[in-house]
Write a structure and sequence with these properties.
Radius of gyration of chain B: 17 Å
Distance between the termini of chain B: 32 Å
Oligomer: heterodimer
CATH class of chain A: Alpha Beta
Mean pLDDT of chain A: 84
Largest sheet of chain A: 5 strands, mixed
Largest sheet of chain B: 6 strands, mixed
CATH topology of chain B: Heat Shock Protein 90
CATH class of chain B: Alpha Beta
Number of strands of chain A: 5
Largest interface: A-B, 32 and 42 residues
Structural class of chain B: alpha+beta
CATH architecture of chain A: 3-Layer(aba) Sandwich
Strand order of the largest sheet of chain A: 2-1-3-4-5
Number of domains of chain A: 1
Strand order of the largest sheet of chain B: 3-4-2-1-5-6
Number of strands of chain B: 6
Number of domains of chain B: 1
Strand content of chain B: 25-35%
Structural class of chain A: alpha+beta
Helix content of chain A: 25-40%
Number of helices of chain B: 6
Order of helices and strands of chain B: HEEHHEEHEEHH
CATH superfamily of chain A: Glutaredoxin
Shape of chain B: globular
Low-confidence stretches of chain A: none
Shape of chain A: globular
Low-confidence stretches of chain B: none
Mean pLDDT of chain B: 91
């Protein structure tokens, strides 16, 4: 069973406190949703998820919500991810690789610029985010 | 699916779809009995007999059962190919338990794959769901329980990148330890 050492816990707590203070309000600035249906998993969605986990960790980003959902109905285009920037229409990216995911994270999630060449469609859907 | 860890992720995602808030994953490698046992159990909404039959059949699906998909038939095939079986017990309102066995020395047994990455994907992607993982190799055991970790975090989100880093390290070490020959 994992036992957090006191110094681990304090380090994590300090880091979370610092980044939370920087945030405006309590919301996330973006949501990254990796489609994790059977089709997605078989096509490599877990590698894509791991690419985003690594990006969050190495860039020390705490205000991006990373989540999974099921099949989006376009199995042949997997792995897929939907990026939602607060206040903007969601964008679906298709046929992803780890490299494409890194580029999308840097340009769209952090930079706010849609990577058009990997996108499926823009503004064609609505969610409650 | 290339390896068993991807099957585990896939079946656990079914549990998420079934609105479970607790998923228990158990792996047991027993060289003496030449058997690998995999169990994935949840407290989701469960299935009645009819839905369960459909879930196990890759060809008979209706739109109503669309959400079930190919996950269970694929795992059934993986188990059968390695001299094993798959059973599913489910009760509406109570949950579902999938149990697959494999012959450990079978040439067609898929590799276990990256179990850490499967667990991290589940924990990071579904921070509100509790994951209990136990893995035994010839009697040596490793256990991970998000409830115990949560109790130590005092309100820090379990999906915070720094916590995820800690979990990754713990699971990697834990699995390495039980696999090390003594």
């Amino acid at each position: 069973m994992p036992k957090l050492k006191i110094e681990d816990l304090e380090k994590i707590r300090e880091q979370v406190k610092r980044t939370t203070a920087l945030r405006e309000g309590s919301g996330f600035r973006a949501k990254v949703n990796v489609h994790m249906g059977t089709c997605g998993i078989a096509a490599g969605a877990r590698t894509i998820m791991n690419a985003f986990i690594k990006e969050l960790e190495t860039r020390d980003v705490h205000d991006v919500l990373l989540t999974n959902s099921g099949c989006a109905g376009l199995c042949s285009q997997e792995p897929m991810v939907t990026i939602e920037i607060a206040g903007q229409a969601p964008v679906k990216y298709v046929n992803l690789t780890e490299k494409k995911a890194q580029e999308i994270f840097e340009k769209h999630v952090l930079g706010g610029t849609i990577v058009k060449e990997y996108a499926l469609g823009i503004g064609s859907e609505k969610t409650d985010y | 699916m290339e390896d068993l860890s991807l099957h585990i992720l896939d079946i656990a995602e079914n549990s998420v779809e079934a609105q479970a808030d607790e998923i228990r994953i158990r792996l047991e490698e027993n060289r003496q009995k030449d058997r690998l046992t995999l169990e994935i159990a949840d407290n989701g909404k469960g299935m009645d007999k009819e839905l369960l039959e459909r879930a196990l059949d890759p060809f008979v699906t209706t739109k109503k059962a669309r959400r079930i998909g190919l996950g269970l038939p694929l795992l059934t095939e993986a188990a059968k190919a390695a001299g094993g079986t798959l059973t599913v017990r489910s009760q509406p309102g109570r949950g579902t338990k999938v149990r697959a066995t494999f012959q450990l020395s079978h040439i067609d047994l898929k590799p276990l794959g990256d179990l850490t990455l499967t667990l991290l994907t589940l924990i990071a992607g579904h921070p509100d769901i509790d994951i209990r993982y136990t893995h035994a190799v010839n009697g040596k055991k490793y256990a991970f329980d998000t409830r115990d970790l949560r109790a130590q975090l005092h309100g820090i989100p379990i999906n915070d990148p720094q916590v995820i880093k800690f979990i990754k390290h713990d699971i990697n070490e834990g699995i390495d330890h039980i696999r090390r020959k003594t």
